[in-house]
Amino acid sequence: MKWLFFVLATSLFSYTDLAVTYEFSKGRFGDNLLAYLHAKWFAYQRNIPLLYKSFPLSSQLVMHKMEKPYGAQFQQQAYTRHYLARGPINPGIRLPILYICPYFPEDPWELDATLDMGGNEWYHFDVDWKDPVFRAMAREMIAPAHPLSLVNVPQNTVNIALHVREGGGYDGDDGYLYWPLKIPPLTYYIEALRKTLAFLPPGKEVFCYLFTDAGFPQHIAERIQEAVGSNLTIRYRRINNHHTRNVLEDFFSLFKFDILIRSQSNYSLVPTLIHDFAIYTAPKDFIIFADAVTITKFDFVVNEEALGRALNR
Questions:
Q1: 158-311 sits in which CATH class?
Q2: Domain extent listing, the chain
């Protein structure tokens, strides 16, 4: 099936006068995946080719071999570029046309409260993230090209992933003030974990794992565990933890969990777009007082079908 899709997609380039590619945000892996997915949806909806641009770590994904590369195709045809943010195409423009999809966020708060890199409101369009054909296509492309060492998850427990973006090694020590939903305080994780545990049937065994870019995850795990109590043990990677390490291993491990308690970070947002978790939480609103962030609202999204499967294993 994969080879047939590749042959058909490759053949299509001989007959189309339209294609689409994407631009990046200068962000990290999650941002780059989101840029790719938006352009992928645009291509899927219009049945036109996607011209793939590589980004850090994408060479280790299936997309790197399966997608048509931007460089080779763009050099073969003299495309007229059309940036989607500039509005409808001038009917006087001649084919072939290459649509350029700019990066834009998915999080509602970020869309409404922030501006793009040019200081303008974000260009954006809606994606049907539940479309089964598109989801299957996205999951096929966003998959490891080679085996990875993923977290071992028990089969007879409800498994909870905590994605704590600490940010100190990348965003700076005061990054939480600029991105309070991307780097929420630990009080958010504690409250979300308490609500999640209270939602589960009494006595149900739970496995909880901490994914973080923090250099010393032990302190984070101990603070959350102490606050939540209830005999919960939080596992985590004990050595070699850094925001530049284990990026793919942690990302693909997230899909093995039933429940995801995440930040606004695109790194953990993308899995919730293309995969059905039994429950996921995400910070929604906040207040800042005396340089301290408090999360005032968070989403608590339950997928009854996936939850039923998790509880009945």
A1: alpha beta
A2: 2-141, 158-311
